[in-house]
From TrEMBL:
Annotated protein name in UniProt: PadR family transcriptional regulator
Pfam family, one: PadR
PANTHER family assigned: NEGATIVE TRANSCRIPTION REGULATOR PADR (PTHR43252:SF6), TRANSCRIPTIONAL REGULATOR YQJI (PTHR43252)
Source taxon at top rank: Bacteria
Database matches in SUPFAM superfamilies: Winged helix' DNA-binding domain
Coiled-coil residue windows: none
């Protein structure tokens, strides 16, 4: 999937400005699904508008610049549904935290403890966010997705809490070996 499909997905849930679409896709509730960049959203919206998949209207408020508000068209909804029914790529998971854990023998144990504790706090915050989102969700597919995300973050949180000390104990072993030589 790409920025085009992501824009259609966001607009499928309701009209939005380009700024709102960008915010939702980069750091909001849609940021978990497709990697996209700030620079990809507006060109995608322009192409979608040119193709008749999205409509754009100017919304004017006194004393403020006009905002472009986008909405999905019936043709756009058909294109979105078609995109959802295509074969999908495998998930991409990238984690700087896991790179640090994989190379823990080169990391000072105190720093590793700090990194782990920050990760635990991050996961705790994500779980709180997802819990609040689940309570506000009235769409079955979105609710299922929130529960899935909660299960993934919960498993990661529990694993880190349970295995924190073991990772810290492995940390710095390469530095210790070099110092002994």
């Amino acid at each position: 999937m790409n920025a085009r499909t992501l824009c259609l997905a966001i607009l499928n849930f309701g009209e939005a400005t380009g700024y709102e679409i960008r915010k939702k896709s980069i750091e909001g509730e849609f940021s978990y699904f497709v990697d996209t960049s700030f620079g990809a959203i507006y060109p995608a919206l322009s192409r979608l508008t040119d193709e008749g998949l999205v409509e754009c209207r100017d919304e004017v408020h006194p004393g403020k610049p006009a905002r472009k508000v986008y909405s999905i068209t019936p043709k756009g909804r058909d294109a979105f549904v078609d995109a959802l029914n295509q074969p999908i790529e495998q998930d991409v998971f990238k984690s700087p935290f896991l790179l640090t854990a994989m190379c823990c023998e080169f990391v000072d144990p105190k720093h590793m403890a700090k990194v782990i504790d920050e990760r635990i706090e991050y996961l705790k915050n994500k779980l709180e966010f997802l819990s609040a989102a689940k309570s506000d969700c009235d769409m079955p597919g979105a609710a299922w997705t929130l529960h899935y995300g909660s299960a993934v973050f919960e498993a990661s949180y529990e694993y880190l809490v349970k295995n924190r000390d073991a990772l810290i104990a492995m940390s710095g072993s390469a530095q210790s070996a070099e110092a002994a030589e």
